[in-house]
Each structure stands twice: as C-alpha cells, then as structure tokens.
Amino acid sequence: MNAPAGDQLRAALSAEEIAELNELGIPVTFQPGAVIFKEGERSNHAVLIKRGHVKVVSATHADQELVLAMRGPNEVVGEMAPLDGRPRSATVVAATPVEAAIVSAEDFNTFLDAHPRVLRFLLTQIMQRLREADHGRVDLATLSVTARVAACLLELGEVEAGQDATEESAPVVVRVSQNDISAYVGATREAVAKAMGSLRRDGLIKTGYRQIRVINREALAALAQDHNTGHVK
What we know:
Elements: H1 5-12, H2 15-22, E1 26-30, E2 35-37, E3 46-51, E4 54-59, E5 65-71, E6 76-77, H3 80-84, E7 91-94, E8 98-103, H4 105-114, H5 116-142, H6 145-161, E9 172-174, H7 178-185, H8 189-201, E10 205-208, E11 211-214, H9 217-224
Antiparallel strand pairs: 1-8, 2-7, 3-6, 3-8, 4-5, 4-7, 9-11, 10-11
Pfam families: cNMP_binding, HTH_Crp_2
Protein name: Crp/Fnr family transcriptional regulator
GO cellular component, one term: cytosol
C-alpha cells in the first residue's frame, strides 16, 4: 500500500517548497457535507487541504453516488482544472470539518512554473491515481465484498492516520458511513453491512457512530489480498 499522498508530498519536496505552497491561496473552512466543487462545473481553482478530510465522488448513470477516493491534509484536490482548463471531473465534498486554501489557476500555475519539482510530483500523483483506478476495476471483478471492504478500511485508515498504524495506535476512519463504504467498494449497503458484521465478529474492527477502528491491520491486509475470501456478494 502506498503512503498517503500528504506524506509523499512532504517527502518529495523541500521544507521551503512546502512552506511556500502552504502560503498560497485564500483560507476557507468547510463543514461536513459542504460541496467544495461539483462535477461538470467550470471553476478552475485548486484546493489545498490543510486539516480534515474530503471525499471525491462521481454520479453514476442511475444517479447514485460513487466514492472515488478520500483525501486528507497536505493534499491538493482539483489540480487538473488549472492545468487543462476543462470542467471538473468529479465532485469534492467535505467529509469532516475542513480547513483549506483556495488557490487561483493563475497563482497555481505561476507556482508550478517556479517549482517544476512540484509539477512533477503532481503528475506522478495523477498517474498513481489512474493506476489505482485500473486496479479498482479489477478488484470489482475478482474480490469478494469482504475483501473490498477490508481494502477500503485500510486505505481510509491510512488517509486518516497519515502513518503506519500499530495495534496500540490503530487508525480511525472518522465520519464514514456504511453508505459511503458501499459507494466506495461498489456493493449494496446490505452486503457491506454483512461484511462489516463478519469483520467485527472476527475481532478485526470495532465500530461506533460514523467511525471505525482497525484492531488487526495485518489480518485486514491479508483479507484484502485474498481473492476468495468470504461468500458475500
């Protein structure tokens, strides 16, 4: 599993580059459920997340919400619009209270021109996300719902924790509903509920209101890689 993009950013750039990036833009805050930008709109600013988490979603032909990704601190969302000027390819919604900075296309591109290493990093991130999307399509065809839920919890836990977790300091996925998880893994809410119940009974997770604590990360990772795990469809 790749390190969270926020950690990758800190590792890839110098302290001066990160400080300058953090100074860009107009500070804004969003409450959970607030739409930061919508799929199809023609705004062209980028958004730098400083605190909190957002979910990246897209609407299906049946008007259902598909969760494409979760993004956290030190990640940039909406970075494609300032680069190509095309309409938004997805909707971004605050999943938790969010502190961010809105960076105009002009300021964003000026910064990238002055810091080509940041541009290379962003292009690498875009390519990584495309590869993850390809793997996601394979997973939908080959993994059980239980395995897909396990992989989802690991990924969201990494976004939340920002570091590898141990049993004593397990990552917590905050404000994520079963509806979000079902949209993320491409399964019905009932199938996800059944898979979550199985994971709870096996002692891999504990759940509360809109939060999930990973108890046995190693076992979850094993499930996520097992193409024949469980019988939930």
